[in-house]
Amino acid sequence: MTDKMKKTEGKIENGKEEKVVGTRGRIFEGRVIKKFHKRLTIVFNRMIYIKKYERYAKSRTKLHARLPEHLEKEIKVGDLIQIRECRPLSKIVHFMVIKKIKDAEEVKQWIKIWNF
Fold this sequence. Notes:
Layout: H1 3-7, E1 10-13, E2 16-19, E3 23-36, E4 39-50, E5 55-66, E6 80-86, E7 93-102, H2 104-114
Parallel strand pairs: 5-7
Antiparallel strand pairs: 1-2, 3-4, 3-6, 4-5, 6-7
């Protein structure tokens, strides 16, 4: 086996070869706002420190993540999910979905209680 063959090895299911993508780096939790084929967009709030004013400001961040086939039917818009950094998969996708944390209904109840 040559070096080129080793690099392109992956899972073979139903006659298709699927590349294995390793994850590393940062982990984020966010709410799904858009869902596409094999991709989704999540949003989460964070606090940014502004040095000049010595204060914190609220900020919202949107990230695009790859959606694996085994999670595609399970995850819906509004769900709380966990994503993890991976190698760049396209121009905007640099994260991979790891798992679903809460259902959309549970997230809505939590938002009403905490007034977010």
